[in-house]
Amino acid sequence: MGKTTAQKIFEAHLVDKPFEDVQVLRLDRVFCHEITTPIALNDLIARGRDRVFDASKIKVVIDHVSPAKDSKTALQGKILRDWSRRHKIDDFFDIGSNGVCHAIFPEKGFVRPGFAVIMGDSHTCTHGAFGAFAAGVGTTDLEVGILKGVCAFRTPKTMRFRITGKLRQGVFAKDVILAIIAKIGVNGATDRVMEFHGPVIDGFSMESRMTLCNMAVEAGGTSGICMPDAVTVDYLWPFISGEFSSKEAALAQYRQWASDPDAVYDGTVELDVSGLEPVMTVGYKPDEIKTVREMRGTPVDQVYIGSCTNGRYEDLREVAAIVRGKRVNPRLRAILAPATTAVFNRALEDGLIKVFLDAGFCVTNPTCGACLGMSNGVLAEGEVCASTSNRNFSGRMGKGGMVHLVSPATAAATAIAGHIENSSAFQG
Amino acid sequence: MKNFNGNLLFLDKSDINTDEIIPAKYLTENFKDALKPHLLEDLKIAGFDPGRDLRDKRAVISRANFGCGSSREHAPWALEENGITIVIAENFARIFRQNMFNCGMLAVELPAADIEEIFKTFSASPARLSVDFAADSVTVQGAGGEKKYTYRIAAFDKSLVEAGGWVDYADGKY
């Protein structure tokens, strides 16, 4: 009987099976940021166990409030900074070289097919785009991960999503994942891995695959997973060229992690996206969606472009294609936060930042900030934001505020129109 | 092991997320006790007033998919800081459920019909929950009488509750 990617990774990383249906895995990566890690570190110190299992496998970033906005967030940064120095964790990314965790860690080549990854952040499922098993965990699991390099999981079942058809112009990975979540509901994949297959996924860039896997948790999924292929190898090649004689050799090895054709799934969901229009969320749950066409004209106070979902270079390029030579409508304000320092730099070199500034965008440094209403664009009560992020919970971007989740193209069109608008209004 | 017996708080809503349990703006706190006054402050349910309704509560009962959203362990911490050590729901988001057990707290899943019955029978007036941890059962008492419900719990999760959490369990073993 064939195996799924998650089953293969679980078998290869199994340390212990303390109980039926629970597997303790050896971890290849433990990622840390300044919001969920400091309390774990304080607890380790209090327990007299201020140790790390392997400094080379721990990667650290300050991203949620960056730079610090007050004494408390400054302390969170300091705890992380001091700890990284104390334990000689070389891959520590402070302001000036940082980025939103789920954008910067892949960009640095830290995630490879077949890896087992945890982080104290629910959107860790993003990294499954590389054919890895990557799961968000709480602070206690993170603490044990840091100390012992292991994490316990229920043996996961895998749901298979086969995405077929041809995407229309103006429809992107964000629209596809919102449509998937709407189809199965916000707990439609709880305790399950979401494996994405089909010609649409095969044609996606790594950036688009990350957007897709990023929102697996919004359907309750443990990890999103895409099959490693030539696109994966091309993306990773700058980091792995010393390990393999050729891209073909890398591909041959990575392909071993792909699910077998006769793998057993906990259900298959088929979605033909040929008829899919740009969509957006309309309520306070990510599974409540309507087409942008239906919602066209809805008033918006703020447009936010960024986050671990849609703040990568590919996203910024789509935005620039729409806003070039135009002005942000004075009825609203628009914030754009490139997800990493490298994305910012490339956008600067390619002239995109100038396009955004000329259009009237407030371009900020990389940070999670506004997405969770911590800094960098918090909403006032009663305000509405069209955002490229991943959560539209009530109060998510500020108490009493409303969030419509959209693709970067829809966000850009909305910024120019001054209300919810389809990107097709500004093309051709 | 923690004490799981006490007054029951009824939260009649599905998909209560961790932003509603403890808003993100409090994630900058470096100490758990600072979370205490902010538990459920953004939760909107008709008639619910956290300042009034959280008083003297030790247990929560809710509907489906409790604790969805962010991985923040601040959610169970904020509950425990307010004396709440057990949540009963139809089902939980994975990370929240694991965080509860990792803290030695109880996340009890009951069938939708049982949850519905508890809300119907007991939610109109004060009710009390008692837990028989060894027998995997909870008993609700109130003006509507007394009723016992048996739940299913994974052996691993049960051992975490007994051990008082995952750090001690793992450090001794791995």
Report on the architecture of this protein.
- The complex is a heterodimer of chains A (428) and B (174).
- With 428 residues, chain A is α/β, with parallel strands linked by helices.
- Chain A has 2 domains: 5-270, Aconitase, domain 3; 281-423, Aconitase, domain 3, CATH 3.30.499.
- Chain A has helices at 5-13, 38-46, 71-86, 101-107, 139-148, 173-184, 199-202, 206-214, 230-240, 247-255, 292-295, 307-310, 313-323, 341-349, 352-359, 408-417, and strands at residues 14-19, 22-26, 29-33, 58-61, 92-93, 116-119, 133-136, 150-154, 157-164, 192-197, 224-226, 268-272, 279-281, 289-291, 302-305, 333-336, 362-363, 384-387, 402-405.
- Chain A is globular.
- By secondary structure, chain B is an alpha/beta fold.
- Chain B has one domain: Alpha-Beta Barrel (Aconitase, domain 4).
- Chain B has helices at 18-21, 50-53, 74-81, 94-102, 112-122, 155-163, 166-173, and strands at 6-10, 57-61, 86-89, 106-109, 127-132, 137-142, 145-150.
- Chain B has a 7-stranded mixed sheet with strand order 4-3-2-1-5-6-7.
- The longest helix of chain B has 11 residues, at 112-122.
- The interface between A and B is large, with 57 and 43 residues.
Number of helices of chain B: 7
Which structural class do the helices and strands of chain B define? alpha/beta
Report the CATH topology name of chain B. Answer: Aconitase, domain 4
Radius of gyration of chain B, in Å, reads 15 Å
Low-pLDDT segments, ≥5 res of chain A = none
Instruction: Round the Cα radius of gyration of chain A to an integer and report it.
Output: 21 Å
- Provide the CATH architecture of the largest domain in chain A: 2-Layer Sandwich
The unreliable regions of chain B are none
CATH superfamily of chain B: Aconitase, domain 4
Q: Name the overall outline of chain A.
A: globular
The CATH architecture name of chain B reads: Alpha-Beta Barrel
- State the domain count of chain A: 2
Number of domains of chain B: 1
Major sheet summary line of chain B: 7 strands, mixed
| Strand tally of chain B | 7
Biggest β-sheet of chain A, characterized? 5 strands, parallel
If you average the pLDDT of chain A, what whole number results?
A: 97
**N-to-C span of chain B:** 22 Å
